[in-house]
Amino acid sequence: MAKTKTTFVCQSCGASYNKWQGQCTSCNEWNTLSEEAAPEAIPKGMGVAKGRKIEFVALEGEEKTPPRKVTGIGEFDRVCGGGLVPGSVILVGGDPGIGKSTILLQVMATLSAKHDCAYISGEEAIDQVRLRARRLGHEKAKVKLASATNVRNILTTLEDEKPDVVVIDSIQTLYIDTIDSAPGTVSQVRSSANELIRDAKRNGYVLFIVGHVTKEGTIAGPRVLEHMVDTVLYFEGDRGHQFRILRGVKNRFGATDEIGVFEMTEGGLQEVPNPSALFLSDRKGDVTGSCVFAGIEGSRPMLVEVQALLSPSALATPRRAIVGWDSSRLAMIMAVFDTRCGLGMGGNDVHLNIAGGLKVNEPAADLAVAAALASSLSGVAVPQETVIFGEIGLSGEVRAVGQTESRLKEAAKLGFTRAIIPERQKRGKKDKEKGLKDSGLEIWEIGHVQELLSFFPMKDK
A Gene Ontology MF term for this entry (predicted)? Predict the structure, then answer.
């Protein structure tokens, strides 16, 4: 009997090796190699059948787009591009306990009123899912529930039932019995997802796949999993905080980087139609080290509070504690302050926080962070009715950012009266003048970060 050949596959990047080694030379991760059965090769001397010729068509053509399935949950539909496209595959990832299973059960319950929905759980027993449905108030929903992990059994069942929407919770628990490796390994996750995606495309049903995440926050398993699906959604937020952010990082049928805001309550996740007002609801008067940033998340303008606190440090290396923002950009702004403006911030402990649990990624927050730092250092508060946005360069210049009018209109809608923005370019200034005036805000334009410091006179020490 021929000996079964084995190979060692990295569970982080999918690279394969003939023998075991401690470190993967492809991704430099340690202790990630797992032994798996090698795929059988074609015997020597046997030819490969010639493939059939494929047909090319013109780029121009008329295709009927099938109507989207609207879930009725506005924030979820926004992230998905306006609804669910038949035949699409959506990957949902997030930290344990963040609310992935909860939001998908709510989506299936609302869709079941008009569509045939199936929920297949590989992690939880049927009684556990029923308890969650009862807590959410959806125990009467017409959702077909099952608990299974064998991909062959799942595909056979879906072929007979022919549902419109299917949830697989989660892909790391499924396995294909022809592959000699444990569930959750690279080969099992890749092969299971490939079979499910192929079946969803062929039969035209919407497929939700729940994916575990690693300690770095990325989807566990091969990176190719995110390339195989049509949409990738990430749940963000702290489990101890009531807000949850559903962010779309990939979407073939809608805008990317769109977000939906939810609030975790006893009855499940409730959508927040006006997140700007909610994020600013706990803001207290004129407080030093605090200012409001007018940002853009996807296509939506959003106002959030930026908080900074500087305190003298007794350590040789001052502490930098950042929540919700990029630590490298904070270091850049402090370097600009020290070098271009002569401020001595380097010897202080710096604490920076984006209130509400939101993660801000755009460079337009530079000016708001700089204003919060300057306010904390000087002891002068930013006026409560002022919003700030702009990008800061290494020479200290304040650069323009996109969608200025949308940011200002959102600020005016929430009662703000003043805005500190980058200096506009001369080209097109007259064309934009009317739009900025229509916002009803008093506009202060600055071209260098030194001009920002004029609002915060430093105390003599």
Answer: serine-type endopeptidase activity
Closest CA to 261 of 237, 283, 238, 231: 237
Closest CA to 372 of 283, 304, 289, 455: 289
- Number of residues assigned to the chain: 461
pLDDT digits (tens, 9 = 90+) for 142-158: 999 999 999 999 999 99
CA atoms of 203 and 260, how far apart (whole Å): 29
Let me know: does 129 contact 145? Beta carbons within 8 Å: yes
Distance CA 25, CA 19 (A): 13
| DSSP state letter for 383 | P
Give the residue from 6, 59, 71 showing the smallest Cα distance to 34: 6
* Separation CA 248–CA 259 (nearest Å): 6
Q: Average of pLDDT values for 91-104? A: 91
Give, as one character, the DSSP assignment of residue 280: T
Q: Residues annotated in the binding site for ATP, as ranges? A: 94-101
Report how far residue 106's alpha carbon sits from residue 141's, in angstroms, rounded to the nearest whole number: 10
Instruction: Report the run of H or E that residue 136 belongs to, with start and end.
Output: helix 126-136
Is a pLDDT exceeding 80 seen at residue 383? yes
278-453 under CATH 3.40.1080.10, yes or no: no
Domain spanning 74-273 has what CATH number? 3.40.50.300
Distance CA 270, CA 106 (A): 10
Q: What is the mean pLDDT of residues 208-216?
A: 85
> 128-140 as b/e, with b when 16 or more CB fall inside 10 Å?
ebeebbeebebee
Let me know if 279 is exposed, middle or buried by CB neighbors in 10 A (0-12, 13-18, 19+): buried
Residues of each annotated binding site:
94-101
